[in-house]
Model the fold of this input.
Amino acid sequence: MNSLLPHRLFTFKHRGSKLFAIHYSLFTIHYSLTYLYMTNKYFEEFKKTQLRKCQLKQLAILEVIDSICRKHNIEYWLDGGTLLGAVRHKGFIPWDDDIDVAMKESEMERFVKIAPSELPENLRLELPEKVNPILKLRDLNSFYLEPGDDLKADYHKGVYVDFFQFVDYPNVSRKFVKKHVRQIGRSWSILHKQHTYSLRSFVEFFYFNFKYCYNLTLWKLACMLFKKGRYFSNVPMLNGYGIMHDNKCLYPLTEVEFEGKRFPAPADSDCYLREIYGNYMEIPPKEKQKIHSYFILSELMTNHK
Done:
């Protein structure tokens, strides 16, 4: 064991502060998992044994979402890699370990109000925050660690489904969106990732803060000056692709097969996916078929009811 993990993880002694001890331990656990992820083939094989269990648990969460949305006429659709998997594989992309759904802003507000009273006890809604603006529905009886997770932060780290909030875009050119909205998304992502204290981080903070503020100002002016109604997309801070969809591509919603079940999808999934991925039917090379997470444990309590 000592050959696989940093020795200090096992030789840590209390140094006068419980808070320091907790923070130190969490840091070393995160470091150790990252170290294993990069160097230990057995650890990678363990993740593969958990992948299908993780996918089935996420599918069960999706079925709960679908049931609530159908009951209350809340519109949503499969998005991103989940929609791609449905079209190309009739289910999960074989190496994918998450599920993405999308909702318009007003529909998400309704879901957030209604869902908590109808969720089973093992699921909890994790509301968007400034640091993480993505709504998540988490399973409490699991553990899922991915790049960017902060073990010191007070939030559940179970298997989840992501909800992406979509908003109306002004009737501007796709070139404008590609140039400015993508910069908003990328700058925001860099500003909110975990940083080490260094001269580079200091310079990055001011550089990307300027880019974020400059492009966001231009975006707000466009929203004031141009009509909305034809286009929509992710909220700008999450639109790292710099794309927007035509409403004709989305409506009327249809259904697509995913893991033997039917779920809502855009009216023209081909158009929708090509705008995101280009030639989405092309299978990526083997070296890019990577499980996203660092660590997956699909069940904490096997006899949990």
